[in-house]
Structures are given as C-alpha cells and as structure tokens.
Amino acid sequence: MLRRCTRLINPRAVNRNSLFNRHRRYFSSEQLDLAVIGGGPGGYACAIKAAQLGLKSACIEGRGTLGGTCLNVGCIPSKALLHNSHLYHEAKHDFAKRGIIVENVKLDLKALMGIKSQSVDGLTKGIEGLFKKNKVQYIKGWGKITGNNSIEVKTLDNKTETINAKNIVIATGSDSAKIPGIDIDEKDIVTSTGALEFDAVPESLLVVGAGVIGLEMGSVWSRLGSKVTVVEFLDRILPGVDKDYATKFQKILQKQGMAFQLNQGVKSV
Fold first, then answer.
1. Residue 213 near residue 175 (C-beta atoms within 8 A)
2. I need a surface site. Which of 99, 112, 152, 220 has the fewest CB within 10 A?
3. At residue 1, does pLDDT exceed 90?
4. Residue 30 — very low, low, confident or very high, per pLDDT cuts 50/70/90?
C-alpha cells in the first residue's frame, strides 16, 4: 500500500494507464482512482497529492475532523497547553523575581481550554479548505475494507455506503497502549487524550511512562497546580534521547515540582 502512495507522489512515475491497468476490469471511469483510509498527516497529504497529480481521490476519516491524532489530540493541543501553562507559571512564580509585580494571578481553565480548541479548529478547517481546493472527496465515517477494491463506510450519521477504488491506502495511525488489567475511562484513568480535557486541575496526577507525551502532560498540569508523580519502568526518563540531556531535563522538571519513581512498573490501579 505504501509503495503505491510513494509512486503517486513522484510525478515522473505517474502513468494512470499502466498503474491501474490490472484493476481495470473492476471499475467504470466514474469510480475512484484512490481511497485513503485515515485523515491524519500521512493520509490527508497523500489524498491531496494524488488529486494534484490528476487522480480522483477520496479520504475517509471517522473522527469528524481532519488532521489525525497530531492535530486534534496530540502535538497541536499539547503545545498550546504547554505554552499557556508556562505563561501562567511564570506570572505566578517568577515575575516578582524579575521585578514584575502582578497581583492575584488566577487561572481560568475554561478559557485556557477554549484557546486550545480554537487553535485546533482553525487548523482542521484549513485542511478541509485544501480538500475543497484540490477536489478531494471528504467522507466522514469509519472505513472497513471488504474486498480488494471496496470499502464499507459507516458514516457519522449511522448510514452505510460502499466506496469502490482502484487503489486503497491505509493511513489509520496509532492508538494509546493499554496496560493489562487497567480499564481506561478517560475520566479518572486517562490516556493523553483525556489529559487534554480535564475540566478541573487534578489535586494529584500519576503519569505512567516518562516519554515525551507523558512528560508534556505532567508538565502542563504541574504548572497549573497539580502534584505530579511520574512512574517509569526504565532507570531514566526520555528513552532514546541523549542521556546527558535527559538527566538535565529531569532536574528542570523536578525543580518545577514533579516527582519521579524510576525502575518502577505499574501492576494495578
């Protein structure tokens, strides 16, 4: 699947007659050249590029908004919260040291979350605009491959339709890892997605895993007033990152108020 997508992105490699000749018996000229399942950074870019190269393409996305995890519940909202929580923490704890006196600094969490949502909404609508500009068909629903060239889509309004395409690209992304025996309800026990949507600052927060995502969320809520403890199975934070850098970064987070329990694993909650 991915090899086909690569060929589509290279204009010199595109020959519609040769690329789709072996599938011709299945389709009329009205059917799709390409259907992409998943509207994240890989999927939407592939669908747009295919359309720019002259192919009739569609993108199927069940979230209801384009951009995937990164834009909706990952990089973009987390960076918005990181930036604004940093400003709050600076105003509350550091401004006076710098000769800047700000009295009665208060947190309006609802407004903070609203700014995050505005950032996400603007970018997702921007991708929809690119779809319209490049004539990519946007299908809101969950896709299931039912044959070599057919996809059954359950739309967000609970209808079922079948999409036929000469080529299918699977770009469904990833999901949060689960710990056996622990039920995630996205309220008290949450993934990073739930940690982006708290309606109140938790009194305490236990973060399982000292990777980038866990430390981002821990840092946000620590700055906003939560007592954060990070549990990591390894003997260090940020596996895969230069150890000296990770050690210095841990000291920064500890100074911020975060606690760490390394060489520890979670068995139950």
1. no
2. 99
3. no
4. low
Each as own residue / partner, the long-range contacts of residues 161-166 (CB below 8 Å, 24 or more positions apart, any chain) are: 163/32, 163/35, 163/58, 163/60, 163/139, 164/26, 164/27, 164/31, 164/32, 165/31, 165/32, 165/33, 165/34, 165/35, 165/58, 166/20, 166/23, 166/26, 166/27, 166/31, 166/32, 166/33, 166/34
CA distance 37 to 173: 10
Contact between 165 and 31 under an 8 Å Cβ cutoff? The reply is yes
Record the pTM: 0.83
Per-position b or e across 73-94, b if 16+ CB within 10 A of its CB: bbbbbbebbeebbeebbbebee
Q: What is the pLDDT of residues 188-203, one digit of tens each?
A: 999 999 999 999 999 9
For residue 34, is pLDDT > 90? yes
Helix, strand, coil shares of the chain as percentages rounded to 5? 45, 20, 35
Reduced to 3 states (helix: H, G, I; strand: E, B; else coil), residue 139 is strand
pLDDT of residue 45: 98
Q: Which residues of 214-241 are buried (b: 16+ CB within 10 A; e: fewer)?
A: bbbbbbbbbbbbbebbbbbeeeebbeee
Nearest Cα neighbor of 116 from 80, 83, 86 is 80
Say what the pLDDT of residue 11 is: 39
* pLDDT higher than 80, residue 22: no
Choose among 216, 255, 227: nearest CA to 85: 216
With tokens 């940093």, the residue in question is: 86
